[in-house]
Amino acid sequence: MERVTLDFPANAVIHRHPLTVRVTDMNYGRHLGHDTVVSLLHEARVHAFSALALSEWDMHGYPSVVADLAVQYQREARWPDALIIETAVPEPQGKALTVYQRILQRDGEHIVATARVNQLLIDANTGRPVAIPEPIKQALAQARSA
């Protein structure tokens, strides 16, 4: 079986978001469910962009769509574990924002999961991807250097 392996770009972190595993996040294996992992990642990504005065539904006039998602599950988390989700966005190449995230136990030593999402900004009139606007690139660069 081929496994997904992702290298988290620690030098491109733009945001850290604390969360706690809720009892409703548990699956019948009594650990954090895979579907909930994706929801927690989305929640943290929205907070990361919001901290830069950006929103996924309006990135300088363009809504974003997720083109693909990869998740590498590395460790179980259970209720009531305290977690931190780090969001990293390297400098955009082409028409995609590549967003990496990793879920850490609050101690920072144990990785629960690492994920990568490619997001495209879409021209509402044509339905086609557009180049990442310069103000978005600048906001991300400032966050990476902070």
Cα shape? globular
Mean pLDDT: 95
Distance linking N and C termini? 40 Å
Report strand %: 25-35%
Q: What CATH architecture label applies?
A: Roll
Query: Widest sheet: strand order?
Result: 1-3-4-5-2
Question: What's the assembly state of these chains?
Answer: single chain
User: Low-confidence runs (pLDDT<50, min 5 residues)?
Assistant: none
Judged by helices, strands and strand pairing, the structural class is: alpha+beta
Largest beta-sheet details: 5 strands, antiparallel
What is the number of independent domains?
Answer: 1
**Number of helical elements:** 2
Helix content estimate: 10-25%
Task: Tell me about this structure.
The chain has 146 residues and is α+β, with helices and mostly antiparallel strands. It has 2 helices and 5 strands. It has one domain: Roll (Thiol Ester Dehydrase, Chain A). A 5-stranded antiparallel sheet has the order 1-3-4-5-2. The termini are far apart. The model has no long low-confidence stretch (mean pLDDT 95).
Strand and helix layout:
Blueprint lengths: L12 E8 L13 H17 L13 E10 L8 E7 L7 E10 L5 E11 L12 H12 L1
Antiparallel strand pairs: 1-3, 2-5, 3-4, 4-5
Give a nutshell description of this structure.
Helices cover 20% and strands 32% of the residues.
List keywords for this structure.
146 residues; alpha+beta; Thiol Ester Dehydrase, Chain A; five-stranded antiparallel sheet; 5 strands; globular
